[in-house]
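FORM 12-B: Structure-to-Sequence Request
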């Protein structure tokens, strides 16, 4: 009975999400008014030639293997991009689920989910990232920076700009974004996780290394679109599943990248309504 209920609820929810996409399309909002720009291969090669971190991230990016495994694909990409290992630390993104027990990761990515919930809210992503880094021998400091829909647009944009400027200026820093994919692309407005590839402070644009298999090449979005997507509450439709905002996981690697200790630090925005 519970399985039937959750199945029917998911079908109803997906229909509501489709209606929300139609609503945004009619109003010309989000990606329907400001589409993402997929980068041609020649431009990607030029950027990679001048940005070693971006090059490593692109070369280690792999599409998620299941409908809900964007977190595993993203964490594997970042772990493999860190340091100068000749062979990947993570051979298969799904291996992470067998070795990292934090956050009930494997259960949350199963078809049934954990207690009816699939995928990782931001705070749970903040639990599994330090655990995965530590398991693979990487010393790093991890910050979980939440963005909320009740923040003003100016505040969200300025906070995102400061983090991205730090990312651009620190080659040993990596970003994993927890965002509303429908805020970046003309798809369902659902939670998604992917690495940030690059920030251009001159044009104020962000390159996303989306692990969705339907997005085989990186795409570029504006700062305002980026800040909007990581603060989405999905119209309140996904609150029962723990999704009422997104944010960024900031990973600052220690020199050399080999583990001696690993620190996780949570830093949310002022006066959060909920962390999911």
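FORM 12-B RESPONSE
SEQUENCE OUT:
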């Amino acid at each position: 009975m519970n399985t039937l209920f959750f199945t029917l609820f998911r079908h109803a929810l997906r229909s509501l999400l489709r209606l929300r996409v139609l609503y945004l399309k009619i109003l010309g909002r989000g990606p329907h008014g400001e589409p993402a720009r997929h980068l041609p291969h020649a431009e990607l090669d030029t950027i990679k030639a001048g940005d070693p971190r971006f090059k490593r991230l692109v070369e280690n990016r792999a599409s998620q293997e299941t409908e809900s495994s964007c977190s595993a694909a993203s964490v594997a990409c970042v772990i493999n991009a860190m340091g100068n290992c000749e062979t990947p630390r993570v051979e298969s993104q799904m291996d992470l689920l067998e070795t990292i027990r934090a956050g009930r990761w494997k259960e949350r990515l199963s078809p049934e989910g954990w207690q009816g919930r699939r995928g990782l809210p931001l705070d749970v992503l903040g639990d599994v990232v330090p655990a995965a880094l530590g398991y693979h021998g990487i010393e790093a400091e991890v910050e979980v920076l939440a963005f909320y829909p009740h923040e003003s647009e100016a505040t969200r944009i300025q906070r995102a700009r400061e983090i991205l400027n730090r990312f651009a200026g620190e080659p040993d820093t990596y970003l994993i974004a927890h965002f509303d994919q429908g805020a970046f692309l003309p798809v369902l407005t659902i939670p998604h996780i992917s690495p940030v590839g690059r920030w251009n402070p001159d044009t104020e644009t962000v390159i996303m290394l989306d692990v969705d298999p339907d997005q085989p090449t990186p795409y570029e979005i504006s700062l305002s679109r980026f800040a909007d997507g990581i603060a989405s509450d999905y119209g309140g439709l996904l609150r029962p599943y723990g999704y009422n905002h997104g944010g960024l996981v900031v990973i600052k690697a220690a020199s050399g990248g080999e583990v001696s200790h690993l620190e996780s630090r949570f830093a949310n925005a002022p006066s959060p309504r909920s962390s999911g």
